[in-house]
From TrEMBL:
GO terms for cellular component: plasma membrane. This is Magnesium transporter MgtE. Residues 142-204, 205-261 form the CBS domain. It is found in: Cell membrane; Membrane. Belongs to the SLC41A transporter family. The keyword Ribosomal protein does not apply. InterPro entries: CBS_dom, CBS_dom_sf, Mg_transptr_MgtE_intracell_dom, MgtE_N_sf, MgtE_transporter, SLC41_membr_dom, SLC41_membr_dom_sf. The chain crosses the membrane at residues 289-309, 365-385, 391-415, 427-450. It comes from Leucobacter weissii. Keywords: CBS domain, Cell membrane, Magnesium, Membrane, Metal-binding, Transmembrane, Transmembrane helix, Transport.
């Protein structure tokens, strides 16, 4: 789908904003009536909380539900605060249990409890089952509404049981096959059922099941679902009994959420968890200020190193000219290694026990990069200044790149081993390490080569 099909025209957004501000409800209804659901979502994400609530109340009931389900959980929670209790209760009851949990995680505890109490008994039980699993686990993101069948049941019987319940389940395209103790023995697809003879037993058309443990990390389970290319992944308890199902659309949603967090934290900010234009300025400030303070404190180590080697700088002031170059090159090298290994961790290409393999591999990569950059740095600096200064720069680039790539490569693995987000742990550490240690290496080499 193209951007033109998902983004509303700028003129329409301006009309919506003007109509809300002037309380021209007829003009507002006409403006939003021209938009598709996707365009409405994009338009509402650009409005503030008050404007969003006004526009939302004018939507037809079915379209309002579709728009609400398409919102990020943070915006859903904000919209709940702007609607009346009756409107909120109706919306909440229409959501699937796993979508309710996404929303409940964003709401104050008292509001969440009130919404849960307003649900019908059956829906409240389903939602409570999902809420019972740990934060970050796939059990908290699965749907407990699953259509199943048994291996001895015929294809015709399975299809007959499927038809009246087709609108109640999260998916009908993949059916777990269970024994009499609800242990999963296989899965069967709707395609296989439709293509088989009605008298055939389900056991003859089912295939082996890939499953996820209910307490397994949500990102890992979602990644496996995407890598396997399956439409749904059954979720089981410790005794292989079915407790829910993860659909591919929910898996993609989890991965998008996790990758947005990783991308933000690798850039030294906290994830906004909502569209940029609808995020209050103070929230953006809070997302950035903590990391700026952490990095500023780390930078004091650099100042300390410079003060220790102040006498060396006074003897040959040209050395100070290359400090930004060396720090920047080392930091970039380390961050490249950390980003590559963090991504490999997310994809399951490497694991914490592979730390020695990664260490030796990144050491070789860093040495080769340092050799190349060092040779170029030596040639240019030797021509402009002096061969001895060029040798200092060349050797420093070789040492700094090797050290930075090695540390950058193993930091994500160390972070995963101690159960810390690799994206949070790696880059600030690398920046501090390279700034301080890189300067120490630089001045030690300068003293050795130049005899200072």
């Amino acid at each position: 789908m193209t951007d033109d099909q998902t983004r509303p025209p700028t003129a329409v957004i301006d009309t919506i904003t003007e109509s809300v501000n002037s309380r021209d409800l007829s003009g507002l209804a006409a403006a939003i009536g021209e938009l598709t659901t996707r365009q409405l979502v994009a338009a509402l994400e650009r409005l503030n909380a008050r404007q969003r609530a006004v526009v939302y109340r004018l939507l037809p009931k079915q379209q309002a539900l579709e728009v609400f389900e398409a919102f990020p959980p943070t915006l859903q929670g904000e919209l709940v605060a702007g609607l009346q209790d009756g409107e909120v209760a109706a919306l909440f009851a229409e959501l699937d249990p796993d979508d309710r949990v996404w929303l409940l995680d964003e709401l104050p505890a008292l509001v969440a409890q009130r919404l849960l109490r307003g649900l019908p008994e059956h829906e409240r039980q389903l939602t409570a089952e999902v809420l019972g699993y740990p934060n970050g686990s796939i059990g908290r993101r699965m749907s407990p509404e699953v259509l199943t069948t048994h291996p001895e049941r015929t294809v015709g019987e399975t299809l007959a049981r499927l038809r009246p319940r087709v609108h109640d389940a999260e998916t009908v395209y993949t059916l777990p096959v269970l024994d009499h103790e609800r242990r999963i023995v296989g899965v069967v697809s709707l395609r296989d059922l439709l293509g088989a003879d009605d008298t055939a037993a389900v056991a003859s058309v089912m295939r082996d099941a890939h499953t996820a443990g209910a307490t397994e990390d949500a990102e890992l389970a979602a990644r496996r679902c995407a890598d396997l290319g399956v439409l749904a992944l059954p979720v089981v308890d410790s005794e292989s009994r079915l407790v829910g199902i993860l659909t591919i659309d929910d898996a993609v949603r989890i991965l998008e959420h996790e990758e947005s967090e990783d991308a933000a934290r690798q850039g030294g900010v906290e994830p906004l968890r909502r569209p940029y234009l609808s995020t209050p300025v103070l929230s953006i400030v809070r997302s950035r200020v903590v990391w700026l303070l952490v990095l500023a404190i780390g930078a004091t180590l650099t100042v300390q190193v410079l003060s220790v080697f102040e006498a060396t700088l006074e003897q040959l002031t040209v050395l100070a000219l290359f400090v930004p170059l060396l720090i920047g090159t080392g930091g970039n090298t380390g961050n490249q290694a950390a980003t590559t290994v963090t991504r490999a961790l997310a994809l399951g290409d490497v694991r914490p026990p592979d730390v020695l393999k990664v260490l030796t591999r990144e050491m070789r990569v860093g040495a080769m990069l340092g050799l190349l950059l060092g040779a170029i740095g030596f040639a240019i600096t030797a021509l402009v200044y002096a061969p001895q200064v060029g040798l200092v720069i060349g050797l420093t680039l070789l040492a700094v790149c090797t050290a930075a790539a090695t540390i950058g490569g193993i930091m994500p693995l160390v972070a995963r081993a101690i159960r810390v987000d690799p994206a949070v742990f790696s880059n600030p550490f690398i920046t501090t390490f390279v700034d301080a240690t890189g300067l120490i290496i630089y001045f030690l080499i300068a003293r050795a080569v130049l005899g200072l």
